[in-house]
Specification:
With 425 residues, the chain is an alpha/beta fold. The chain has helices spanning 16-36, 67-70, 86-97, 107-124, 140-147, 162-174, 178-188, 196-199, 202-216, 235-243, 305-320, 361-371, 399-410; strands at 5-12, 38-46, 62-63, 77-80, 101-104, 128-129, 153-159, 226-227, 246-257, 260-271, 283-290, 294-301, 346-354, 376-382, 389-394, 397-398, 420-424. The structure holds L-homoserine.
């Protein structure tokens, strides 16, 4: 390569991702230089916890003052991997105002305050890149923004949380209990000490808000995503699903329906044979459907320091090799679509309920569903007497009709437990 350029990175945060970005830049330096002409250097590291900085990192690189990064004229690209939303917002906002291009892995920030940041990036003519914010190493942002530009996407299904996929995969394979597997996953480092955002669905909801915004060119914020997690999924549910030919997964579903957008995250039954049912362990996958493409699925590691760092470094090198900030770098949300009402979405459901095992019980339950136009596709009964449990699968129906039927079923004397419901994809 005849023309080499030094590009200096200011790294905000030296945690799992930050330290992996630092190492990857050292490790891949020569081949990036050879391949692209970019002499990539880490010029500053912002880290307030000095115990996170290993001895081999030159101490003169490290600072606890953001101003030392953002006011350093030799820094070209600021990389935010500290997480959280308040300081991270200020850091990215200030960096762009001071002429830096920025890269972030912060899904919660983009899903909640993305509009302000993307507007600023456009006004300041700065790059704001975020491949690492969704699905770790999987290059889904680039593929959706560039390769799918003419794909007429109408549906994005995602398994975008590795922690929950790991737990549910083990529940299915080992027939283990949720709490035991979660505790073991924490010991093995597959789940955070505080797993709330993962198991509760908030992490996946933020990622789906970002994916939906890109797919449908209309901003979806975290507050517009209805989500639930896997905390209430029991081994019994997973076993019933298995018996009926399904796998339970935490699924993000983003759909364009009648020019409105629906984005939700929920534990769902997927038929064995659906491409997403085969996504095992902590892997992620994004399944895209569009009028012009049919179906495409991307899968791979969705978390972890090194895989996520590959996405960050790819963004850095891409910025370094792009002369102007064009349409692929600026905000792609040029439409303003409304949200599709949740009750109007059509879904099939799995229902599990404890019942009195007596003559006429099935007829009573079936009649409640019939009154609400909910058609039953499949049913099994387990146990007898006081131990009896009914498991039903419905045909797709408007969710408002289904939930009205469930409210009515709760009032039946023969139903001895709150019905447990899961969507079926
Ligand atoms: N905690 C996330 C997961 C990875 O389990 O997939 C970072 O978003």
């Amino acid at each position: 390569m005849d023309r080499q350029r030094i590009v200096r990175v200011g790294l905000l945060g030296f945690g799992t991702i930050g330290s992996s970005v630092y190492r990857l830049i050292q490790k891949e330096h020569d081949q990036i230089l050879e391949g692209t002409g970019v002499d990539l250097q880490v010029g500053r590291v912002l880290e307030i916890d000095s115990s996170k900085i290993p001895a081999d990192v030159p101490q003169d690189l490290v600072t606890s003052e953001f101003s030392q990064v953002v006011d350093d004229p030799s820094i070209d690209i600021v990389v935010e991997v500290i997480g959280g939303t308040d300081a991270a917002f200020i850091f990215l906002d200030t960096a762009m105002r001071k002429g830096k291009n920025v890269v972030t892995a912060n899904k919660q920030l983009l899903a909640s305050r993305g509009e302000a940041l993307f507007t600023l990036a456009r006004d300041q003519k700065r790059h704001l890149r975020f491949e690492a914010a969704v699905a770790g190493a999987i290059p889904v942002i680039k593929v959706m923004r560039e390769s799918m530009i003419a794909a007429e996407l109408h549906t994005v299904y995602g398994i975008v949380n590795g922690t929950t996929n790991y737990i549910l995969s083990r529940m299915y394979n080992e027939e283990g209990d949720y709490a035991e597997i979660l505790a073991n996953a924490q010991e093995l480092g597959y789940a955070e000490a505080d797993p709330t955002a993962d198991v509760g669905g908030a992490d996946a909801a933020a990622k789906m808000a970002i994916l939906a915004s890109i797919a449908f060119h209309s901003r979806v914020t975290l507050g517009q995503v209805a989500y639930s997690g896997i905390e209430n999924v029991t081994l019994a549910d997973v076993r019933y699903a298995k018996e009926l030919g399904f796998v339970v997964k935490l699924v993000g579903a983003a759909r364009l329906i009648d020019d409105r957008v629906s984005v939700r995250v929920f534990p769902a039954l997927l038929p064995v044979g659906h491409p997403l049912s085969a996504i095992y362990g902590s892997n992620n996958a994004v399944f895209l459907q569009g009028d012009a493409i049919g179906e495409i699925m991307l899968m791979g590691p969705g978390a972890g320091g090194v895989p996520t760092a590959t996405a960050v470094v790819s963004d850095i090198v891409s910025i370094a090799n792009t002369k102007s900030v064009g349409f692929l770098q600026s905000c792609s949300c040029y439409r303003r679509l409304g949200m599709y009402p949740a009750g109007e979405v059509e879904s099939a459901f799995f229902i599990k309920v404890s019942v009195a095992d007596q003559a006429g019980v099935l007829a009573q339950i079936a009649s409640v569903f019939g009154e609400h136009s909910v058609s039953i596709a499949n049913m099994i009964q387990k146990g007898r007497g006081d131990e009896a449990e009914l498991v039903l699968i419905t045909h797709p129906t408007k969710e408002k009709h289904f939930f009205a039927a469930i409210e009515k079923a709760k009032t039946l004397q023969c139903c001895k437990s709150e019905p447990m419901t899961l969507r079926v994809l």
